[in-house]
Amino acid sequence: MLSQGRLQPGIQAAHSSNETAGRCKVEFAARLSIESIMEKILPLPGTLRERPLHRQLGFTLVELMVTIAILGILITVAIPSYQSMMLGNRITAQANQVITALNYARSEAVKRGATATVCSTNGGVACAGSTNWSTGWLVFADADGDGTVDAGEAVLRVWPALNAGSTLKTGARLRITYSATGFATGFNDTFNLCDKNGAAGSRTITINAMGRSYVKKGDATCA
User: Fold this and answer.
1) Residue 109: predicted pLDDT
2) Which fold, 86-217?
3) Whole-angstrom distance, CA of residue 99 vs CA of residue 207
4) φ and ψ of 178, to 5 deg
5) Integer Cα distance of 143 and 152 in angstroms
6) What is the CA radius of gyration of the chain?
């Protein structure tokens, strides 16, 4: 009988051989695993790393044609709206310029305690004597109230001619003269401001006898 805890020499040698072989297999497998990982990270010199193939992304001809068609529809709709908005903004700014000139002349008359006049001009030096104010307008200190820029009467501010084909005409007045009290008695009138949109996009600027002015949309007479 064998002693407890002891193996016969043949059995002990076989067990040792199997243990050594198992350890070698584990070490070999571990070495292969490490070499495989390192090769993926740092490929050996002179070797090409295989790269996975990716599907090329892009548009087909049908997709491209549909995109162009949609873009064309959007442009057709957007451009007229944009142009209309631009014209509206421009004529609003031009109407504000007229209101600014009228209010400025009124405030200068009150501040100076003497009459001040707004009139059409064609050059920014003197009154043009015309109901067509599209060529520009000016404000001057009209000491004698005759509506003419005389010697010694200062031109206070000048506005340039309207652009983009806009027109500005009064009903009858060649000038708007404010008294020292700020009134425009005898000079109340209505300006007709028009552009390419015609009467629909027009503005009227009305001055009453009290010297106050206000703007109304789409009520002008455009010829």
Assistant:
1) 97
2) minor pseudopilin epsh fold (3.55.40)
3) 9
4) -105, 135
5) 9
6) 46
Residue 148: CB partners within 8 Å, gap ≥ 6?
A: 126, 127, 142
Q: Which helix (H) or strand (E) holds 174?
A: none
Per residue in 135-166, pLDDT (tens digit) is 999 999 999 999 999 999 999 999 999 998 99
Query: Which amino acid does the sequence have at 75?
Result: I
Q: What is the pTM of this model?
A: 0.66
Sorted by where each begins, the domain ranges of the chain are 86-217
- Alpha-carbon distance 92 to 94, whole Å? 5
Strands 116-120 and 137-141: antiparallel
DSSP for residue 153: P
Percent of the chain with pLDDT over 70: 74
Angstrom distance (rounded) from CA 213 to CA 95 = 11
Q: How, if at all, do strands 189-194 and 203-207 pair?
A: antiparallel
pLDDT for the residue 37: 55
Residue 36 sits at the vertex; the CA angle it makes with 33 and 42, to the nearest 5 degrees, is 135
Q: Is 141 helix (H, G, I), strand (E, B) or coil?
A: strand
